[in-house]
């Protein structure tokens, strides 16, 4: 079955080159993969303040005051301004059931929310930063992620391994199809470092929860097309 698949791919490649008016060598295309595991060196915390009041103005002013204290506490803790970014602002009415059939809902207050994403460049200070946030008045810790800052450089060895993996697969197909593999015609890469998500929790839980950074798995995938040569007799 594999041999028939490779032969069909060769035929399609030949038809495509004929239709385009160009003479292209027949190829076999495979994907090589490799991965490495490294400890993260960056963390991001999504935190914020939510306040409620009877009027929109009161909710907004109370939220601004509380958030101002949180931001100042972060700066006092050594977090640079560039590492504190507002991620969401919202002000919404809060409703309750109303006995009036013409107006089934009654606005009983307003909720203001201000959220920031804090980048921590010293991974050992994650727990301390959470303590600072909660101590300054942040009442929501809704997400955390760990990352690797120089993922591309760390993937260099994995790239070589991915190319070797692609060659190994191509040789297997070549043997099954009774052909020989030549030089690579094209190489393209896809990487997926991705952050490691941390479970959501309330602020009071986050303040006492242990933080385990674990390891980040960095993956690289390369698509390689090899020239096909007649098998030496």
Secondary structure class reads: alpha+beta
Strand segment count: 9
Share in β-strands: 35-45%
Fourth-tier CATH superfamily name of the largest domain = Protein of unknown function (DUF541), domain 2
CATH class of the largest domain: Alpha Beta
The Cα radius of gyration reads 28 Å
Number of domains: 2
Q: Uncertain segments of ≥5 residues (pLDDT<50)?
A: 1-19, 193-203
State the end-to-end distance.
24 Å
Question: Care to give the gist of this entry?
Answer:
The protein contains six helices and nine strands. With 233 residues, the chain is α+β, with helices and mostly antiparallel strands. The chain folds into two domains: 27-39 and 150-194 and 217-230, Protein of unknown function (DUF541), domain 1 (Translation Initiation Factor IF3, 2-Layer Sandwich); 42-147, Alpha-Beta Plaits (2-Layer Sandwich), CATH 3.30.70.
